[in-house]
Design a protein that fits this description.
The complex is a heterodimer of chains A (284) and B (348). Chain A is mostly helical. Helix content of chain A is 73%, strand content 0%. Chain A has two domains: 2-62, no CATH class; 75-273, Orthogonal Bundle (MetI-like fold). Chain A contains 13 helices and no strands. The longest helix of chain A has 33 residues, at 2-34. The two termini of chain A are 40 Å apart. Chain B has two domains: 4-231, Rossmann fold (3-Layer(aba) Sandwich); 241-341, OB fold (Dihydrolipoamide Acetyltransferase, E2P) (Beta Barrel), CATH 2.40.50.140. In chain B, helix 2 packs across helix 3 (107-120), helix 2 packs parallel to helix 4 (136-148) and helix 4 runs parallel beside helix 5. The chains are: A mainly alpha (284), B alpha+beta (348). Chains A and B meet through helix 9 and helix 10 of A and strand 6, helix 2 and helix 4 of B. The complex binds adenosine-5'-diphosphate (ADP) and magnesium ion (MG).
Amino acid sequence: MKTAKLPESAGRALAQVLFIGFFVFPIIWIFLMSLKNFRDIISYPPKFLFSPTLQNYRETILGAEGTLQAGELPEYVRFLLNSMIISGGAVCLAALLGIPAAYALARGGLPGRKHIAFTFLSFRFAPELMIILPMYLIYTQVGLYDTYAGMILSHQLICLPLVIWIMMSFFQDIPIEIEEAARIDGANILLTLRAVILPISGPGIASAMIIAFIFSWNNLIFGLVLAGPNSRPVTMGILQAMTFDQIKWGLMAAAAMVSAVPGMIAATYLQRHITRGLTMGAVR
Amino acid sequence: MSSISLSGVSKFWGDTIGVKDLSLDIKDKEFLVLLGPSGCGKTTTMRMVAGLEKPSTGTIRIGERDVTGLDPRERDVAMVFQNYSLYPQMTVAQNIGFPLRARGVKRNEQRQKIYSAAKLVELSEYLGRKPAALSGGQRQRVALARAIVRSPAAFLMDEPLSNLDARLRISMRGLIKRLHQEVGTSTIYVTHDQLEAMTLADRIVVMRNGEVEQIGTPKEIYNNPRTAFVAGFVGSPSCNLLDGEIVDGMFSAEGISLAAPLKPDRGKATLGIRPEAISLADGAEAELRGTVFAIEMTGDATLVTVSVGEQQLIAKLDADCTLEPAQAVTLKTGPRRFFFEGKTGLAI
Ligand SMILES: Nc1ncnc2c1ncn2[C@@H]1O[C@H](COP(=O)(O)OP(=O)(O)O)[C@@H](O)[C@H]1O
Ligand SMILES: [Mg+2]
């Protein structure tokens, strides 16, 4: 038995290494790049042994020496803050609108609710390029161009469908009898939501918001077209390393690494805390 | 506490019939059991009384009030679900107290009532636990306490014991019976288990395909089944139903010949005999002739399956009976036997 299994498990291990390598290699490559000086980056053949430097990170986070006015934040840090405000705001707004909507779509007797739910989902697979130009025109007209409000609003196209769909399937998984029990116990809809549904849904809401945050954080196109100097998000910050006369590869890599940190933290949190069996003990 | 009455209540979903033209009166303090096979409309009936389902026709009254169009919140009934339906994020105490909280009962009063309800179901020591940390029987006791705590007009229980194992079921049955004797609230109890129905009920409603087959006390149902279906549904092992023909006061089929009612004087009929009413007989006494098909020992009795012509019956005989498979046997029946019309299944 054991000898027969060995090549099989070796094959599986190899497949896993290839699979993981495929996804992890670019990240490692960029990480290494962020630690190299310019000369090492452009050397050919590529260097795997080099003396690492933190200069790229220093310049990304603290700004290039001598370019800062007193009391001014480095550009990249401003972009980070912008992204925090935009993605944080977008996720909060999406939760505020999306959770009640998801509940209504999951439980309400709304006619055609399947179509409505699908319409929300379709926002996700329509390419953003399709709507970005009309949005640009509208935004410049009504004064939403390059504002936090405008960015938060545009990110609803990313966050709202995610929140609605994740929460809808979550609500559908809650046994209807729990809500019926609450009705019979005399609770009105508000008490039922507050005391019964939302406490059960806590982990679901957390995961929906985190996923929406990651997608919003990683978005480039809205920031590219709809944001100006006041509200550029961090993804645009990475592009700032492409200047008129050169591409500062090291800076770009460092900026990319830093901006990936929130996503990585969120993913780790998701993996650790979002488990099944959320209604454990309620039924059965 | 109050009576409940349903008159002409039906429930349809398109072509699907849930319940058809049901009329029922549950007296104050009565323990009424809805009994029937799965899909016969028991749950639907109960959900209409609770207000979770709107009847397609008919009216429902609780006490003097017509509650047909009212929301569950306004009906003052408590319900125990098959799957417990506890609130998973709340402690046992919070679960039991939720109906009080929903009604804005004062904290002090809540605490007192929660405590005495928990005591009734023997859960006083578990008040701080979450449902996930309880066994199935304990969970269902929480559900019972949650129903009792606010002294509702009626209890509705939908197969509350069917998720429990056999031993627990028996002790919970005892608990439910005792609770009813203690608080005396009118109760509608749904089950497909005839033994539960027989042991708990003041009256049983046997349902089939969304309609009432018979209403009566457990004794009436057992001794005077109105239809062959009822006879076959109550009793364990279930009543033997044998097809044959009545001609001039004699019921006969292959291997069967025994005295029958004189009216009708001829026609197809079904004979109902309970296994415990059958005994070995010889010679002139014999009413049934067949061969032993299988023998099962239950400890206190022997269940013998006998082939009689093309049909089979089960006889409950003495524990020390010495029959062998394939042996020829002759049997007689006691005075308690039923005859049903062949077509309609109605008792003759
Ligand atoms: N929401 C529903 N929609 C359509 N048919 C239903 C619905 N609920 C119950 N039924 C049908 O009504 C009949 C009675 O169901 P139910 O009352 O649950 O039976 P029981 O509780 O006796 O097993 C069944 O045939 C069932 O399929
Ligand atoms: Mg049912």
